[in-house]
Amino acid sequence: MKNRMRLVLSALTGGVMLLSAPVMAVDIPIKITGTIYIPPCKIKNNTDFKVSFDKIALQKVDGQNYAKSTTVEVNCEYFQGKPYIRLSGGTGQLSGAPDNVLNTTGANPSALGIALYQGGTVDPQNPLRLGAGAQGQYGYEITKGLSAVNVQNSQFTFTAVPYKHGNTELNAGTFSASVTMSLSYL
């Protein structure tokens, strides 16, 4: 019985000593990362859309005739600040033309472009310019064509018009152009 008591006391003493011994820990750094971004607005519920000119007389292409206005629905999760629009990719800018003129493919690739304007008219004061703009990746400030600013749901109207570059005679034939449009608030 005495041996048993000694054994229990020894075990208890050893356990207490173990519990009172200093604990060693290793410091491990934790790195937490993420990205806060400005979500782009949804244009026409993120579906493709077309602007069709149908048939146009080649002698009447002057950057005014055959203008087509298009209005698209815009839905924004974030709508604080100023609205910006970016046009990128696709067929790109027509070489030597203003920065609101898309290049075309087809019968007249270096002479025929599509000029784009903010709003419902051909208005040289409000071009719908291609590229990243002064804000880097967000494009250029919208100055005309947005039905309401700083609201979740609105509409954006733009105008596209065939544009003849230089004195080159146009050839009869089909043409097309494409571009990616994104709208964000900053």
Automatic annotation (TrEMBL):
Task: Look up and give the organism this protein is from.
Answer: Salmonella typhimurium (strain SL1344)
Top-level division of the source organism's lineage = Bacteria
According to the record, the signal peptide region is: 1-25
Give start and end of each Fimbrial-type adhesion domain.
30-185
Report any Pfam family annotated for this entry: Fimbrial
Looking up InterPro entries in the UniProt record yields: Adhesion_dom_fimbrial, Adhesion_dom_fimbrial_sf, Adhesion_dom_sf, Bact_Fimbrial_Adh_Pro, P_pili_tip_PapF
> What GO biological process terms are annotated to this protein in UniProt?
cell adhesion involved in single-species biofilm formation
Q: Which UniProt keywords apply?
A: Signal
**GO cellular component labels:** pilus
Q: What name goes with this protein? A: Fimbrial protein
